[in-house]
Amino acid sequence: MDLFSNLALGFATAASPWNLLFCLIGVLLGTLIGVLPGIGATATIAMLLPITFQLEPVSSLIMLAGIYYGAQYGGSTTAILINMPGESSSAVTAIDGYQMARKGKAGAALAIAAIGSFFAGTVSTFLVAIFAPPLTSIALQFGAAEYFSLMVVGLVSSIALAHGSIIKALAMVVLGLLLGLVGTDIYSGTPRFTLGIREYADGLNFVAVAVGVFGVAEILRNLESEKTRTAVITKVSGLFPSREELRAIVAPVLRGTAIGSALGILPGGGAILASFASYTVEKRVSQRPEEFGHGAVAGVAGPESANNAGAQTSFIPMLTLGIPANPVMALMIGAMIIQGIVPGPNVATEQPALFWGIIASMWIGNLMLVILNLPLIGLWVKLLTVPYYVLFPIIMAFCSIGVYSVNGNPYDLYAVALFGLLGYGLVKLRCEPAPLLLGFVLGPLLEENLRRAMIISRGDPSVFVTRPISAILLLIAVAVLVVVFLPSVRRKREEVFVEED
Amino acid sequence: MKALLASLAAALTLATTSFASAQSFPERNITIVVPFSAGGPTDTVTRLVAEAMSKDLGQQVLVENVGGAGGTLGAARVADAEADGYTLLLHHIGMATSATLYRKLPFDTLNAFEYIGLVTEVPMTLVARKDLEPTDLKGLIEYAKANKDTVTVANAGIGAASHLCGMLFMSAIETPLVTVPYKGTGPAMTDLLGGQVDIMCDQTTNTTKQIQGGTIKAYAVTAPERLDVLPDVPTGSEAGLKEFDVSIWHGLYAPKGTPSEVVDRLSKSLQAALADQNVIDRFAELGTEPSPAEDATPAALKAKLEGEIDRWKPVIEAAGQYAD
Amino acid sequence: MKSLSFDKVNGFAGLLFIILGGFFAVQAYGLDLGTAFRMGPGYFPLVLAVILIGLGLIVLIQATQVSGEALGAVAWRGMLLILPAPIVFGLTVRGLGFVPSLFLTALVASFASTRMTILRALLVAAAVTIFASLVFIEALGLPFRLFGPWLGY
């Protein structure tokens, strides 16, 4: 096993002064742009991509990877501070992170996110280094039937995202699934629910929907009680988590890392489930599930770790197969090709310095992020003392830029307004936006894989139970359902419900 | 405040000079619209060409991604743009096929653009999962005909290169197979690698590294001659499959009404960019080469577009699949 | 069952789900449905839309049985000024150019708060515009024009 010589080569490459510098620049730029509201990792990378072209291949990819972690971290920061997620993963962080911030624990929430991310990043980097090739072959066992069953598990677990009425949460998931289907049906080319607007032929933009139902709706909610409420956020108490809080996040971080690492390997969109799945698990195993949705530390620590671990392991299919697992990886591949490296199954043997250099830089980048961001927490939290009436025009301006920069499509901006209205309406009617977003990302995957599995099996639905991985996943889904509707659990939920009323 | 004043002043001087003669073109940044999202093969081709064109023109050539609706949104954007040579479009074969695939296009494909020149013609490869039985193209055709209800053909969605090539393959062997669409090349290639689907026909930009790595099997290239990067893969006609010669050609366009001096300048610049060593090297790694200077001209692109619209119309109509 | 009261929050929520479900159901019904084993583009959405209507009905029925919180104040002024902000940006960014368009967007949004004075709003909008122009256009080179053709550029 020449793992150690490989890693040594990687660290030697990544730790050269130039590469360290570019890693730092990448992490810094990624954080700074990503922290602007409504601008998530994809938009940040698309914006910063051209500036990496002038560099050496290894340096440019190290910088790009740094931008990626930085942007993702920045996205979590805005999710926590102003309830404005720029990616599906940080939508989950917004649920409890923003509640912590409202209770004056913004600093603690940010620190927990940073620590969780760093730990998850460290573990999953080594997973990538040790297991990349064998894990890839497992990932390739996943066909349409397996992905469908995986999405069913995700769907069933979504009930845990709600902290109010289960029925309303289910309705929100279904509404999200339907919204996810807007756009051209890939099997027949038929436009669906686009009202004849060609700009929606590729579906609704995720950032537009997320910014609308979370961010804009939150701004409106804050505006309605302007006269009675002076400050949105109560006094900030302590920038760092307490000893008890740190102890409380150990298990969630470990579980989140495991979940994220496993799901991130799947190239067909497993990583988007990572943070949702972790949240579900944390809520299920928690002694006090009633705290979830009201600022539970585990609700921040678990999903943030899962998210970062998933981000890290989603490099596996790209590095070992040359296949992008998500839009960010597609951008990375584009950047590699421009640099003259066409990713494929041979990158590891043909370009060992590059391959291992990137892996080593992942860890270095994560280390830099945590060092950089812990002191910055004070600064971010200070931002909250900016009067709200100054803050929200700025937020609206940046999210307009962020949404528009992804595809240059003005209709995405109109969607922000529409979903802002819908999101605000739903918030007023005590419906929570997180299940809707989960449905939105799952909708197309669920339908696509269901129909694909049926086409490949020539219309035989038994594939879902005769293929072993699919069958196991469906069993898990059933198990989750049973747990949810077990009397004891239901009683617990009802207590929560009563407490809320 | 100073910064605002300064930028205002700069903008004002820019405005007054923009009425100067076309002789001095270009005087500011040029934007090439790519009608697909960043990171894809067309985006990559554009960024390489844009960088080389910047050197020749002495002005920054920026790339703007306006993705959506099979490339028609970006094309429509450029069709409506000012005809001053500062907004260009780099589009591939989809320019010709969307004229038939979309029955309600917001622009008239043949009359909305000025032609600058062809950029590159990327050959396609007919590939399969690595454990598919047949050993050569002849065997594959027999196998496909014998098992037409179970042989699956993946593609990256309606209008994608792999969709067009798949249609052409099925019409060439006169056998309809089971089509399995995906959203993009990535997931389609994943399932091919995993052996979930049987065959696919896609650009060398996407398949070369996989073929070289032995993770998929190649039966044919759709070029008139064998490719340098894949010397062991026969051409379609070598193996007896006529009319299976297809390439994903890319062209550079400007809005209709762009002054001819400007178009000529851009065409010269494109030719210079395509002769750039960096462009040649990068294209070679992708399994393609820049179009020769005589093809990087308005006349050649016009002829290509017109010929390809006529060629694909019957194929698409026979398949009966439209994108709107 | 204390009284025949009707919980407004849940009532409206149920109605909203039924209306949205109805919209999707009608639209999906116009598409090719196919069969369960050979689904057309309308099959899956139709099933979902019917489920949504069903869930909406349950919420509506629950509304007549338990009473919950009141609806509370509605941010009419906010809705009137915040929601148009991105629309303004979308309508004008290509015509007016990045600088005037972003300025307008921030300005419109500013007035959503009753605490905003005209001077402050102008200052905030100008500051955002300058910052964004420097970062996104000057430093990052995003391909947006600072001033657009409507202004004669």
UniProtKB/TrEMBL annotation, chain A:
User: Which stretches make up the DUF112 domain?
Assistant: 20-438
Keywords associated with the record: Membrane, Transmembrane, Transmembrane helix
Q: Which residues cross the membrane?
A: 35-53, 108-132, 138-162, 169-188, 200-220, 323-342, 354-380, 386-404, 469-489
Q: Does the keyword section mention Transmembrane? A: yes
Output the InterPro entries linked to this UniProt entry. Answer: DUF112_TM
A UniProt-annotated Pfam family: TctA
Keyword Magnesium present in the record's keywords: the answer is: no
Please state what the protein is called: Tripartite tricarboxylate transporter permease
Q: Which organism is it from?
A: Tianweitania sediminis
Origin organism lineage:
Bacteria, Pseudomonadati, Pseudomonadota, Alphaproteobacteria, Hyphomicrobiales
From TrEMBL, chain B:
State the source organism's domain of life.
Answer: Bacteria
Q: Name one Pfam family in it.
A: TctC
The alphabetized UniProt keywords are: Signal
Task: List the InterPro entries hit by this protein, alphabetically.
Answer: BUG, Bug_dom1
Query: Where is the secretion signal located?
Result: 1-22
- Please indicate if the UniProt record lists Coiled coil as a keyword: no
Claim: Signal is one of the keywords in the record: yes
Question: Which family would the database say this protein is a member of?
Answer: Belongs to the UPF0065 (bug) family.
Q: What is this protein called?
A: Tripartite tricarboxylate transporter substrate binding protein BugD
In which organism is this protein found? Tianweitania sediminis
UniProt lineage: Bacteria, Pseudomonadati, Pseudomonadota, Alphaproteobacteria, Hyphomicrobiales
TrEMBL record, chain C:
- DUF1468 domain residues are 13-144
Q: Does the keyword Cell membrane apply?
A: no
Kindly give the Pfam families that the UniProt entry links to this protein: TctB (PF07331)
**TM region positions:** 12-31, 43-63, 70-89, 95-114, 121-144
Top-level taxon of origin: Bacteria
Sorted keywords for this record are: Membrane, Transmembrane, Transmembrane helix
Keyword Oxidoreductase on entry: no
Query: This chain belongs to which protein, by name?
Result: Tripartite tricarboxylate transporter TctB family protein
- Species name: Tianweitania sediminis
